[in-house]
Design goal:
This protein is of the alpha/beta class. The chain is built from 10 helices and 12 strands. The strands form 3 sheets. The protein has a 5-stranded mixed beta sheet, covered by helices on one side.
């Protein structure tokens, strides 16, 4: 079956609104002869004369009268679909966004983020979900709108990425711990009992940095990406945790933090999203809010 020429809808709409070939031609900036040819094509497509002569003018057939409102709405809807998105009215936005974040992000950045949204867009709801792994499927499948994390070689190349902040590792112990007194050397640091926090212990940068100095730490407890759990253990023991500084700011309240006495690489925490949401006005606005909040908290 031959697909109909949808451009004829615009022609039909103008003819039915104006009730005149000449006026419809002026409205669409066509010559009268071109409009007459277009009317002939519309008649052939619909199988109805649509406009018939009555004295000096044209009158619509019953079929034309039936189509008039429908055609007008179709043209308006089509124009709306093809029109560039207008300015987002944030105050009236009603939407739920899902953010997938590593442990510590909600505690550290969540309150400021929620306060911004309550002030600017009270109809927006945030849904935070944990990030047990770096699988990009939730973003790709639409289960997640935004994600925070460190971009690695395994990160899906199709994802959009924007840096949020730089972070570094710090050591953390309880108040009154022996490491709160005196100079912390690499040897003193390594000699303590540590909490290992890494998805892959074999690639822990702390162990690599100590090995370069021919030192090795004793890992008394191993956790898989559990910063909150690590710091909870530190509060009531002589264990040492080494965690990201900015990402755990609120979680470390009441504890003693110190610079790690070996060189560890800094890293960038980024915002990730799927390209299908790149031009979405609401999503773009939320990305800006997240960047502002993370940039403001030093």
């Amino acid at each position: 079956m031959t697909r109909p020429d949808l451009n004829l809808l615009v022609t039909l709409d103008a003819l039915l609104e104006e009730g005149s070939v000449a006026r419809a031609a002026r409205r669409l900036r066509l010559s009268p002869s071109a409009m007459s040819r277009a009317l002939a094509r519309v008649r052939a497509a619909t199988g109805d004369p649509l406009l018939v002569r009555a004295g000096r003018g044209l009158v619509p057939t019953p079929r034309a009268a039936e189509l008039r409102a429908r055609v007008g709405q179709l043209v308006q809807d089509s124009e709306a679909v093809l029109r560039p998105v207008g300015k987002l009215e944030v105050g009236g936005l009603v939407r739920t966004f899902t953010l997938r974040t590593s442990e510590g992000f909600v505690e550290n950045f969540g309150p400021a983020l929620i306060a911004r949204l309550e002030a600017q867009a009270p109809g927006v709801q945030l849904r935070f979900v944990s990030k047990p792994n770096k699988d990009g499927a939730p973003l790709r499948e639409g289960a997640v709108d935004l994600e925070t994390g460190v971009v690695e070689a395994t990160t899906s190349p199709e994802l959009r990425v924007q840096a949020l902040f730089r972070d570094r590792y710090v050591g953390v112990v309880r108040k009154g711990h022996p490491l709160t007194k005196g100079r912390i050397t690499a040897a003193r640091y390594a000699a303590g009992r540590h909490i290992g926090v890494a998805r892959d212990p074999g690639q822990d940068p702390i162990d690599a940095a100590l090995a370069a100095r021919e030192l090795k730490r004793k890992v008394a407890v191993s956790l898989v990406a559990g910063f909150a759990a690590a710091l909870a253990l530190v509060r009531n023991s002589d264990l040492i945790a080494t965690v990201p500084e900015r990402h755990t700011g609120q979680l470390r309240a009441g504890l003693h933090s110190f610079a790690v006495p070996v060189v560890l690489p800094e890293f960038t925490v980024s915002l990730l999203w799927h390209p299908r949401l790149d031009a979405d006005p609401g999503h773009r606005w939320l990305r800006g809010i997240v960047r502002e909040v993370c940039g403001a908290q030093r």
